[in-house]
Amino acid sequence: MDKSLPFKVYLHIGGKQQEVRRFCCDENIDVGTLNKNIKEIFSHLEDKEFVIKWEDEEGDKVDISNDQELMLAMKEMKKIGSVYKLDVHILENPWWKQVEVKKTSQNSSGEEHPGIICFCCHQQVKGFRYKCVICPNYDMCG
Among residues 21, 32, 25, which one has the least CA distance to residue 86? Predict the structure, then answer.
């Protein structure tokens, strides 16, 4: 039978601590299960983007985004105490959603450059056209 591990989770919204909850799970936890458990104890997180962090020995808040990072965090937190303390921060405007918005919006001002495709966004260059002076056939939109 697996050992049950106690977690104490602090929810932060807008940079302020809002709620504190506790739960237990088996020692073979992975990031997917941890995310699922956090969504269950904070039911209003179900449709929100969030990041899980832990505090290292230097006081830095370190992200946990994969199983390897989770195992390292648990190993280090075990040295401090018997309860695994995590911070959950809701991301109001995550960078990947900002990138998606920028990809869908096009630079509609300025001169069109027919047949010239931007190396970054793979769309026709419209507006400022940037060229590399060393690389052949490298164009970027502004």
Answer: 21
Report the C-alpha gap between 72 and 92 in whole angstroms. Answer: 27
Task: Encode pLDDT of 53-92 as tens digits.
Answer: 999 999 999 999 999 999 999 999 999 888 999 999 987 7
Question: How far is residue 62's CA from residue 77's CA, in Å, rounded to a whole number?
Answer: 12
**C-alpha to C-alpha distance for 111 and 129, rounded to whole angstroms:** 9
Structure tokens of 62? Answer: 């370190």
Dig out the tokens for 81 from the structure: 């105490």
Query: How is 95-112 classified by DSSP, letter by letter?
Result: HHHHHHHHHHS---SS-E
In angstroms, rounded to a whole number, what is the distance separating the alpha carbons of residues 88 and 110? 44
pTM, entire model: 0.64
Distance (Å, whole) CA 46 – CA 130 = 42
Q: Which of 52, 54, 48 is nearest to 80 (CA)?
A: 54
**116 residue type, one letter:** I
